[in-house]
Amino acid sequence: MKKIAFALAAVAVVAGFALGAAWYRQSRSSALEAVARDRAALFVRLHSPVRGAADARVDLVEFTDPACETCAAFAPILEQLLARHPGRVRLVVRYAPLHEGADEVARVLEAARLQGKFWEALHLLYRTQHVWTAHHRVYMESVWQVLPQIGLDMERLRADFADPAVAAVVAQDLADARELGVQKTPGIFVDGRPLEPFGVDPLVALVDAAVRARYPG
Predict the structure, then answer these.
(1) How confident is the model at residue 40, as a pLDDT?
(2) Cα distance between the two ends of the chain
(3) β-strands 193-194, 187-190: how paired?
């Protein structure tokens, strides 16, 4: 009788352990999925401007400062990468205004996005950096002077520029950049992997490798 009782107790312990292990695995899996979702949000937010196919499997994420000369120099390279892998890579741009006064320029870009003119405004400001920034300083009066040429509703632009919701978007992007360790711009990630070492050739190699991994065969 004692042997039977012991055997039943042993079975109960094993069953309990199995159930506990299953619960732990499920809890850990759920926790890891939550972490993955949270980390994914650091790269792409609902407000983030996206260029390229919506169903592209490779994310090329750039944290940019509109006053950054290197960011302006990399803009055509990023466009070339989209053309190099049509339909397979999407470009996501985030705000990381590290220069003094660049947060206001980022707010201008976000206000332009609300009019469907983000990309036109971004490329315009890159092309005209010599007009509105010098010696690591931003001259906002010059920023406002160049913007009308892309057909923006300037009255609405100024109103949206002053909207706290627009400032909150820029602040969120900057917080994400800092969380990801971005200390200079452009901060570039390909499917979550940082561009290291920094350079055109490493970037091309990183994107090509991501495309091969996401589109085998």
Answers:
(1) 83
(2) 64
(3) antiparallel
**128, 127, 142, 139: which is closest to 100 by C-alpha?**
139
CA distance 103 to 83: 30
Kindly list the domain boundaries of the chain, sorted by start residue: 1-43, 50-214
Q: How many residues does the chain have?
A: 217
Domain formed by 50-214, architecture:
3-Layer(aba) Sandwich (3.40)
Tell me the residue type at 135: H
* Percent of the chain clearing pLDDT 70 (strictly above): 82
Among left, alpha and beta (phi > 0; psi -120 to 50; other), residue 62 is beta
Q: How would you list the strands of the sheet with 193-194, edge to edge?
A: 50-51, 89-95, 58-64, 187-190, 193-194
Q: Is the pLDDT of residue 201 over 70?
A: yes
* pLDDT at residue 118 in the model: 99
**Would you state the pLDDT for residue 2?**
54
Average of pLDDT values for 159-178?
Answer: 98
On whether the CB atoms of residues 85 and 207 are closer than 8 A, the answer is: yes
